């Protein structure tokens, strides 16, 4: 039996442990231990790491301040990245040479593309990630980034000076004050405090000050921001308990296997680090009326659920689901936490009941009858700042050169945090150089949708990205994020490496050439049917069809097409990504064969809008 009292004592003890308040770990061995930098980033989570790396890539001498270096890149909640909408953000972060996609390709244990039955515009790249491996790889990347220095320390206050007259704002940030009283100066400061601003952990009726289990909250900084006049709100979130793998009966559960082949997140990854046959499966189970009964009978023992603070609507706790959707079964995904981890993460079972009741509830679920709980689930309540107080560059209106990114802006999720982090880091560096801000519009990317929603509409609940939020989602696909953003990042900002730029340039020219070749190959529908009998091509009307139109059919891919017409097309199947992107371009191409072979189409003089000619 897991003791709540012991849990509370453990949390309290962990928060009183003496921390190293000042230690430096330089990513640039030649860098002096300076007290002035171009950019300071506060927080080593998913927003902070992306912001710090982006600022350094832009050429700014950058300092990353974090409570503990050993928690950089820590996945505080679910052991996964990506999903529908979220996978789009990861591709866009990667297109700007961000870190998380490459690190996921080196750390995943189960890769899968969601929504495959629908069009490519709403496919969702997703992966289960090895927590330990991700953290190791992220720390290795951060600690070896040129121009980036990492320092342990808690930030208690901001150093403020007179504002620049040509910009709006009541004052200007020029550095930070650490808990030990020392100061570090900078031209720009990026704040990525996550759930640490006056964070409180809740299990049952017990509450403990913490940003996450075992880490201290940031209280002094919260008071500073409030005194400056920022509008502060309160949000809550939660995490499920962790279960011992050997105590679960997987044999009676629905097994989910990874994709074969696995699709990497990063445009510069040819493949992921692990073969599909070596990846770990996930399992699906469901709640039942017994779970509902335990929740409803013990609401008086759950202070988190009684709070009026808004929680995540799209990732609710099991208590919220039982109250909102009574008498229903709810999915619980059993996800591995790593290759050599003995823990299982029950996705969909976020709970803040007392620990002994959590254990009782778990054992009511199919496959978990003998499950052993290793760590209880808990809720977190924290301060966030109304995102309408920041500009599209993520600089605040009130304080010049101060940028916010991540959960401090009211978002939830690793991917949303990373997306804000890379933009804040880029713009913090540009601000130092007195260059115009780098802004992505709603027409250019999901990052633009995310930031525009936040800065114009604000939020009163943890904001999560969905494809339905993007009006231009048909053109903002995961596969073309590089063509949308990489060239801008290279030419306007300088945050993209030469290697990535050359790769994107090659892909762009190869796609243009491939599409041109596919448009130039044209046979009658009856001839195509003979060449590719697998395709459901109608031969009732012997209309001319281009290879690009044939590629649109679900049964046809570039490999099959190249077998039918090898001479001009064979070279386009040597690169997996190029072949897949040509297929997607054909699928989304406006001049499709569906229109040509439609019963309502006219037999003669069909206008081909792609070539601007009449086809008889």
Automatic annotation (TrEMBL):
<keyword id="KW-0285">Flavoprotein</keyword>
<protein>
    <submittedName>
        <fullName>Protein MTO1 homolog, mitochondrial isoform X2</fullName>
    </submittedName>
</protein>
<dbReference type="InterPro" id="IPR002218">
    <property type="entry name" value="MnmG-rel"/>
</dbReference>
<keyword id="KW-0274">FAD</keyword>
<dbReference type="InterPro" id="IPR036188">
    <property type="entry name" value="FAD/NAD-bd_sf"/>
</dbReference>
<dbReference type="Pfam" id="PF01134">
    <property type="entry name" value="GIDA"/>
</dbReference>
<dbReference type="GO" id="GO:0030488">
    <property type="term" value="P:tRNA methylation"/>
</dbReference>
<feature type="domain" description="tRNA uridine 5-carboxymethylaminomethyl modification enzyme C-terminal N-terninal subdomain">
    <location>
        <begin position="498"/>
        <end position="586"/>
    </location>
</feature>
<dbReference type="InterPro" id="IPR040131">
    <property type="entry name" value="MnmG_N"/>
</dbReference>
<dbReference type="GO" id="GO:0005829">
    <property type="term" value="C:cytosol"/>
</dbReference>
<dbReference type="GO" id="GO:0002098">
    <property type="term" value="P:tRNA wobble uridine modification"/>
</dbReference>
<dbReference type="Pfam" id="PF21680">
    <property type="entry name" value="GIDA_C_1st"/>
</dbReference>
<dbReference type="InterPro" id="IPR020595">
    <property type="entry name" value="MnmG-rel_CS"/>
</dbReference>
<dbReference type="GO" id="GO:0050660">
    <property type="term" value="F:flavin adenine dinucleotide binding"/>
</dbReference>
<comment type="similarity">
    <text>Belongs to the MnmG family.</text>
</comment>
<feature type="domain" description="MnmG N-terminal">
    <location>
        <begin position="38"/>
        <end position="435"/>
    </location>
</feature>
<dbReference type="InterPro" id="IPR049312">
    <property type="entry name" value="GIDA_C_N"/>
</dbReference>
<dbReference type="InterPro" id="IPR004416">
    <property type="entry name" value="MnmG"/>
</dbReference>
